[in-house]
Design goal:
The structure holds 2 protein chains of 2 kinds. In chain A, a hairpin with a 2-residue loop joins strand 7 and strand 8. In chain A, about 35% of the residues are buried. In chain A, the strands form 2 sheets. A 4-stranded mixed β-sheet of chain A has the order 1-4-6-2, with helices on both faces. In chain A, strands 5-3-7-8 form a 4-stranded antiparallel β-sheet, with no helix packed on it. Chain A is built from 4 helices and 8 strands, in the order E-H-E-E-H-E-E-E-H-E-E-H. In chain A, helix 2 runs antiparallel to helix 3. By secondary structure, chain A is α+β, with helices and mostly antiparallel strands. Chain A has a single domain, classed as Alpha-Beta Complex (Aldehyde Oxidoreductase, domain 3), CATH 3.90.1170. Chain B is of the alpha+beta class. Chain B has a single domain, classed as Ubiquitin-like (UB roll). Helix content of chain B is about 25%, strand content about 25%. In chain B, strands 2-1-5-3-4 form a 5-stranded mixed β-sheet. Chain B is globular. Classes of the chains: A alpha+beta, B alpha+beta. At the A-B interface, helix 2, helix 3 and strand 7 of A face loops of B. Chain A: Heterotetramer of 2 MoaD subunits and 2 MoaE subunits. Also stable as homodimer. The enzyme changes between these two forms during catalysis. Chain A: Belongs to the MoaE family. Chain A: GO terms for molecular function: molybdopterin synthase activity.
């Protein structure tokens, strides 16, 4: 398992290749990358987090996924600080003997990272800046697990 | 006890943390003490349904006891991913 919380940009392709290498017991790798979308003239996204709790919360979510599905490995990278449209905010990758476990675990990780990892997004655009409000549907997404 | 604030809670209070001496038994009691301090705290804690709390970096409820807790954090619902 690798959990990285960082301000630096990362190379999602290189991360995925490194993650996929060296597993003889894995038949499926699923990855998801989240990018900054330039909605409504957004010029910058600022991500605040809670150092210490962030790593702890993500580790707990990843351990929960490992307990629920048969996984060979888990990767979570999540950035904080200022980000521009088009930049990668985060990525998740799961490796499993079979694809169903890899897909489901990746979706589980995404659903939980959205509303259980202590990150807060602030959008800066033509009308100033505002904190992104949590969506009811994000909380509701957790009930399916 | 360290009390930390994040996102708009931090902005509304105007600082990222306080060091608090308190006899409050629960998070809710601590919130009442903080609200009594100044108007900016009152404003930040006006609607508890819009807030989340973590005790020693674990999510908790507002009726949770504070005994033995070293770090309390208040923040809005998280928006990661």
């Amino acid at each position: 398992m690798r959990i990285a919380v960082q301000s630096a940009a990362f190379d999602a392709g290189a991360e995925l290749n490194a993650f996929s290498e060296g597993h003889s017991d894995v038949g499926a790798v699923v990855s998801f990358s989240g990018l900054v979308r330039a909605d409504g003239g957004l010029s910058r996204l600022e991500i605040e987090h809670y150092p210490g709790m962030t790593e702890r919360a993500i580790t707990k979510i990843a351990e929960e996924a490992q307990g629920r599905w048969s996984l060979g490995d888990v990767l979570v990278i999540h950035r904080h600080g200022p980000l521009e449209p088009g930049e990668a905010i985060m990525m998740v990758a799961t490796a499993a003997p079979h694809r169903k476990d890899a897909f489901e675990a990746a979706e589980f990780l995404m659903d939980y990272l959205k509303s259980r990892a202590p990150f807060w997004k602030k959008e800066l655009g033509p009308d100033g800046s505002d904190w992104v409000a949590a969506k009811d549907e994000d909380e509701a997404a957790l009930t399916r697990w | 006890m360290d009390v930390l604030y994040f996102a708009w809670v931090r902005e509304r209070i105007g600082q990222p943390r306080d060091v608090v001496e308190t006899q409050a038994a629960t998070v809710a009691e601590l919130v009442e003490e903080l609200k009594a301090r100044e108007e900016r705290y009152e404003a930040a804690f006006a609607d508890l349904s819009a807030l989340r709390v973590a005790l020693d970096q674990e999510l908790a409820d507002f009726d949770a006891p504070l005994a033995g807790v070293r770090e309390v954090a208040f923040f809005p619902p998280m928006t990661g991913g």
